[in-house]
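Hi all, long-time lurker, first post. I run a small reading group and we've been trying to get comfortable going from sequence to structure in the token notation. Rather than ask abstract questions, I figured I'd post a concrete chain and ask someone more experienced to write out its structure so we can walk through it together at our next meeting. Sequence below, copied exactly:
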Amino acid sequence: MSQQFNVKTTMRALSLVLGLSSTLLALTYASNTMAEETVSERKTQRVPTLRAKVYDQLSRAQTFADAGDSKQAFAVLDEVKGKASSMNSYELAMMYNFYGFINYNLEQFDQAIAAFEQVVQQQPIPTSFEQATLFSLAQLHMMRGNYDKTIVFIEKWETIQKEVTPGAEIPAKNLVLKAQAMYQKQDYAKASTYINQAVEQQENSKEGYQVDENWYVLQRAVYYELKQPEQVKNVLLKLVKQYEKPSYWIQLAGMYGELGDEKQQLAYMEIAYQLDYIATGSDIFNLSQLYYYHQMPFKAAMLMESAIKQGKLPEDQRNLTFLAQAWSFAKENDKAVPVMLAAAKLSKDGELDAQLAQIYLNLELWEKAITASETALQKGGLRNEGTVHLVLGMAHFNVGDYNLALNELALAEKDKGSQGMAKQWLKFVQAEKLSNERLQAQVAPSSAHDRYLP
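-- Answer (accepted) --
Happy to help. Here is the structure in token form:
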């Protein structure tokens, strides 16, 4: 069962973090038209204002960007940048922020990263602005596969948070991002620590927020890499309960199989089947095997036959062989024979013909058992050739060919796999042959003269 965790799916919300609307710009300007003083455990710092003339230019760039005219938006920003020597740290940070935003929308991620890194280098800037940018940088580096830098920037965010709010709990989203980076670095132990903290924090939150599905997916993947199947199963139980996805039911059944709990494995596969979640050929085949293993060959055969007719499973040697075996196990030999015949025609070796001969022998179709056995020996590639000779010996005996039977049983006796049974049959056939010969001798007239005696 694949347990890979796809980081790209968790990055889809990145644009929500990076996206700057004209409304956001207006609010930022309105809250900073006067000098801001940040008072916290951090060193007291005064943040300069965003002046109206700079705001107006940035607003122009925003308008062009919103209209999809990135060329004009960059041109306006370049004009602003030309006056960088007269700009304060906050204005420069806002300018680079817009460079980053536009580059991100153009999917020029490396340029976006470079711009956002310039944002946090401008000091002083508002703490909330700096933290938002650091978090965006961590996400962008994650998306670009720069996992070490992801951790660096998220921990810079946390350092500021500890200074601003001593003793505050690290937000779950930060823990998840660090867990993602550690997972990609294959440091599964640390990834487990972070994702477990995030999940626990969310599950125990007073607000009662539901844990994000992707968090559980990551947690499951980490446990899988750590070879902790019991924990994988527990996470899948949560996914099954909270998110109705067919794949989770199938995976949960698979984990019970890995844990050796075949009854639960069958139970969850059965539920999935009732919910119409068993759709793929591989899942159908797996469920059929479970039915067969749990002594329900008729259900196995019915499911396989239906899947083949519907085209969900190919009519190939593997599937036909298993279907024939299921019918045979279910004592439905009339159905098993034509399927096994079809499978045997597709097989290059004689193994299936040997199985077919055994079915014919059980049905007391002696001549067909002989023909199938001879075909099996001719094709070769048999796991136990002695058994085929044993079947031939028994079939020849039942049609009265004692000498042929004894020859085949003698060959069967040479094979360890069939030696014991062959010895018993040799004794029996020899005794029957002798008895038959004596009977014939008693019945047959001794001479021509005797034929005419009254």
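A couple of things your group might point at:
Confidence is low (pLDDT under 50) at residues 7-41, 449-454.
The chain has 25 helices and two strands.
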